Amino acid sequence: MTELDERVRRRYFVRAVVASTVGTTVEWYDFYLYGAAAALIFPRLFFSNLEPAVGAILSYLTFFAGFAARPLGAALFGHWGDRIGRKALLVATMLLMGVSTMVVGLLPTYERIGMWGAVALTVLRATQGIAVGGEWSGSVLMAGEWAQPGRRGFATSFAQMGSPFGTILANGALSIMNASVDEAAFFDWGWRVPFLASIVLILIGLWVRLGTLESPVFSALKAERKIVRAPIVEVLKGNWREVLMTMLLRTGQLAPFYITTTYILTYGTQALGLDRGALLDAVSIRAVGSLAVLPLAGHLSDRFGRKRIIGIGCIGTGLWVFVLFALMNTRSAPLIVAGLFVDGILQDLQYGPQAAMIAENFPASRRYTGSGLGYHLAAITAGGPAPAVSAYLFLIFQSSTAIATYAFVATLVSLATLPFLKDQAGTLDKV
Question: Which of 5, 156, 159, 173 is deepest in the core (most CB within 10 A)?
């Protein structure tokens, strides 16, 4: 490669990383906004005829619909992402997510249309899930396939940063509205504003993404006529083991994440009587730390190996969750913020390197489909059920220890999976 070629590649690599980060930020803003609303708002508005505890569980079940739909989105968008390219599909996923989120902000509540509001909410949440299912792997591949081999953990960690950025924006938007209007106005119309504001982020994301080039790896696949006709079939025939291991690898970060960022809002407000806005701020502060830790974790995985860094994160997450709930139970704001902040660091040691590790375990011709399918199947088995399972465990045992034990077992699943995945398996450039 000439010096000019290297400069050109570096420029488009930076564009790809920025586009991946901005794109995943927009997608996760929409996704997490719903999660916070499912914990704090929807039980009161869409399940107002039920007991609060039952309404919370049903609200979390609509939340789960988004997770259940994510593998469908991974298969659908993955098929076309491996057939026609990464870039075009990433534009489509963003549009789908943006429209569905805006419509949530327009929905009439139980008082106006009864349970049909909850039905519509579930359908829109599933549509969000389909969009996210196609987003993650495409964003990771755009960043990773433009990166140099020794920096892929670092490069793909920026796509992972969309998660904390989205959390900060979603919780921040709800916190601003919560502080700006009284409670009656907030539950009447104030909660809708962050959902409708999604259109602004969508337009920014589209502008950034349309300025990127197609992944060089996909361009090489196309030039060498190595595009497969049915990527999902090839994945299920030749890479089912990697899909299964990816799903299990995600368990130890995904289940604890939704316990400590989504269910924690219900636990804090209903069980401990804590302020809604203060909890949203605490989760946002946790996410700020992730902006520094995720790229560091990705870089460390380039230096010392993916498995080592992820393993440390698994052990730390599983043990710390018991400490976190003990700190929550003190009702001390500084201790809760500190507990969530440390929890975020430990989870990010898993999350930062996972993108590169998962992508490296699939061949280029079916990488979009395979990596996305494994990643999002964990949404059904680990992430999606976590808030509802946690709410049920607390309803039965009236103790946070049962919830912490549930999170701890999830981390053991990931630890047991690590030996079955390859660490930095070759190079993403291979077609």
Answer: 156
**Is 50 exceeded by the pLDDT of residue 25?**
yes
The overall longest dimension of the chain from CA atoms, in Å, is 68
Contact 323, 401 (CB under 8 A): no
- Show the tokens assigned to 208: 């950034």
Q: Specify the pLDDT at position 1.
A: 44
**pLDDT per residue as tens digits for the range 108-165:** 999 899 999 999 999 999 998 999 888 888 888 888 888 888 889 999 999 999 999 9
Q: Which residue has the tokens 């719903």?
A: 34
**The two structure tokens encoding residue 394:** 């607390």
In the three-class reduction of DSSP (H, G, I as helix; E, B as strand; rest coil), residue 332 is classed as coil
Residues 6+ apart with CB under 8 A from 37: 174, 191, 195
What value does the mean pLDDT of the chain take? 90
Q: Is this prediction's pTM over 0.90?
A: no
Query: Average of pLDDT values for 334-341?
Result: 97
Q: What residue type is 7 in one-letter code?
A: R
- The alpha carbon of 76 is separated from its chain's Cα centroid by a whole number of angstroms, namely 18
Provide the token pair at 373.
Answer: 């399918």
Token pair recorded at residue 165? 């950025």
Task: Spell out the residues 6+ positions from residue 281 whose beta carbon is closer than 8 angstroms to its own.
Answer: 171, 175
Q: Assign domain 3-420 one CATH number from 1.10.230.10, 2.130.10.120, 1.20.1250.20, 1.20.810.10.
A: 1.20.1250.20
- Please tell me the distance from the alpha carbon of residue 140 to that of residue 89, in angstroms, as a whole number: 13
Q: Which of 305, 306, 293, 311 is nearest to 413 (CA)?
A: 311
Question: What gap in Å lies between CA 217 and CA 91, rounded to an integer?
Answer: 19
Question: What is the spatial distance between Cα 322 and Cα 72, in angstroms, rounded to a whole number?
Answer: 34
Q: Whole-angstrom Cα distance, residue 320 to residue 338?
A: 12
The confidence band for 6, taking pLDDT boundaries of 50, 70 and 90, is confident
Q: Which residues, 6+ apart, have CB-to-CB distance to 19 below 8 Å? A: 90, 139, 142, 208, 209, 211, 212
Residues written for the chain: 431
Give 156-220 as a DSSP string. Answer: HHHHHTHHHHHHHHHHHHHHHHHHHS-HHHIIIIITHHHHHTHHHHHHHHHHHHTTSPPPHHHHH
Separation between Cα atoms, residue 431 and residue 427, nearest integer Å: 9
**Are the C-beta atoms of 157 and 353 separated by less than 8 Å?**
yes
Confidence of residue 227 (pLDDT cuts 50, 70, 90): confident
